[in-house]
Each structure stands twice: as structure tokens, then as C-alpha cells.
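Training component of the fellowship. As part of building independent skills, the fellow (R.M.) carried out the full modelling exercise for a liganded target. The chosen ligand was magnesium ion. The inputs are recorded below so that the supervisory panel can assess the work.
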Amino acid sequence: MPDAMPHIWTIGGGKGGTGKSFFTGSLGFLLAAQGARTLLIDLDLGAANLHTIVGVSHPEKSIADFIHKRVVTLEEAVVSTPHPNLSLISGAMNNLDMPNLAHEQKQKLLRNLARLPYEYVLLDLGAGTAYNTIDFFLTADVGIFITTPEPTAIENIYRLIRSVYFRKIHQVLKTYDFKALAGEAERQNPLATISNPDLLLPIIARLDPAKGALLEEALGAFEFKLVLNQLRKQDSQNIGALICKIVGKHLGLKMEAIGNVGFDDRVHYAVCKKRPFLELYPYTPTALDLRECCRCLQSASQGTPALQKIVD
Ligand SMILES: Nc1ncnc2c1ncn2[C@@H]1O[C@H](COP(=O)(O)OP(=O)(O)OP(=O)(O)O)[C@@H](O)[C@H]1O
Ligand SMILES: [Mg+2]
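Fellow's submitted model of the complex:
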């Protein structure tokens, strides 16, 4: 059992049905198959179905048991899956939903994540930009955004990335007590608010170079990964790189396109069978895409896992 903190990866997307749960389940399967103790947590409260993807028909326990204090530790809400080294905390069978998770409940959950005795903890987040969803992104070692190449999904993922980034700026400004500086920046240019970091940050750096450098460092350390899922043959292979470029240009945020995962009708079949796609079709192009994504993410989260500051 590792005594270090787990690597925490979050998987989210702006739109429903982009493949968050399929991707989370696939990564979990791959990590566990390497012998790494891996825990999947379904945080798509209100629409949880990760248990079905990993072949658990009726999870006996769920995250609700922890939130409603029927168990003391998060670990007690874990159920096993049919796959060695792969465990699950289900989000099913409860009347919780993420936007309404109380502040204290969220904080308790965040604190407990860092103590889980697993090598990898993967969080399947629901679609949308609820504050609570965003806060899980801010605590992860690796934040993974997943979208399909459809313009509607891309619009939503951009909105989500922007919300997460703005919340991060807000958090950093609050932590380092930037209130007076941010106020002065806004007096100098009423448009220089958190919603316009490209205007706000340079003014702060000019007003107080030391704090400007601090801010740059805190935000520079923040890097996201992007996955394009369900790519068909006719789709451009460069959509991911293009999205990253736009995110860099408009938000000044570093984002890396780590891979394209091809569309394969057999994913549907595997989900219906409640079997991992990777187990049924290990040598298909989509399986190879998934392996490559997993490899990239593992190298991105190498080193000591660093659970970032718990959000207030
Ligand atoms: N690469 C793929 N090729 C073909 N079908 C896929 C692929 N990825 C996902 N799917 C299919 O897309 C559908 C949505 O996948 P999934 O449930 O993982 O999405 P989600 O983002 O978790 O959705 P929700 O927001 O509803 O939780 C499923 O029917 C799944 O079988
Ligand atoms: Mg899902």
C-alpha cells in the first residue's frame, strides 16, 4: 500500500455524452492492469453510471454513505469491481446532486481524497460548470477535459475551461490577498476584472512586480490536458491542437492536446455487455489511442503527487 498521496486525475467535459465515463473507466482499467491500485470515483451525482461501465450492477455502497455520515471514512464507501486492483466509489442510488452539495460536504470530500490509500484516484465529473464541479478540477494533479469534435461540444468545453481558469485566478488572488491591487487595477481600467485576465494581470504586474511574478508563477503551474473523443475518419486530427491554441491566445492558459480517441461502434457493444472495451478489443485503433492517452497522463503526473491547496 503506498504511503504517499494518490495521483488525482479529474475527467470532465462541458457537455453530456462526450465520453467522460467511458474514458475514466478505460484509464482505470489500464492503470489497474499495470498493477497500480486504482480507485474510480463517480462524482456525476444525479446521473451516475460509472458503476455500469466497470461492470458493477448494484453497488452496495456509494458516496452518499460518506456524505450523509453513514460511514466515517471515504474508504468505507469503496466497492470492488470484477477487475483486479480496480475499485470504485459509486455515485449511484442517492438523491444528491453536485450543484447542491453543501460547502462543508465538498470540503470534507476534498480533504479525504488526499488520504486515500491508492496510487491513482480518478474522478468522473459531471457535465457543466457548477462551482462544485470546478473546485474538483482545481485540486487535481492532472485536469483532463474531454470533448467530441462537434462544434456544440467544443463551445461547451471552452466555457468550462474558462470557468475553471477564472475560478483559479479568483482563488490565487484571494490566497495572496490581492484585493487592493485588483481594486486599483479595475479603477485604472474598468474592464480589467477576473473575467478579462489578459487585461487584469499585466496591470497587477505593473503595480506590484513581486506580486505579479507570484501570480504568474501560480497560474503558470496550472496546466490542463485535452482529449478529443469519438473522432471519425473524416474529422481533422488537429482540432485538439487548435483548441489549445485558442485557449492559450484568449486565456493565456497552458493546455496540451494529449490525444485523439477514435470512434468505434464496438464501444457501444462493450458498454451494453458491461465489459471494458479494452478487455474485449485490446488491439483496435481506439484501444491503442486510449493506451497512448494513459501513457501521456502518467508521464504528466510523474513525481510526487501534489494535491493543490484545498479550495475555500
Ligand atoms: N470512442 C468512442 N467511440 C464510440 N462510442 C463512444 C466512444 N466514447 C464514448 N462513446 C459512447 O458515447 C456515449 C456516451 O459516453 P459516456 O457515457 O462515457 O459519456 P459521458 O460524457 O460520461 O456522458 P454523461 O455526461 O451523460 O455522463 C456512450 O453511449 C458510449 O458508448
Ligand atoms: Mg458519464
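The panel noted the following from the submitted structure. Residues 270 and 277 are 5 Å apart (CA to CA). The longest strand covers residues 223-231.
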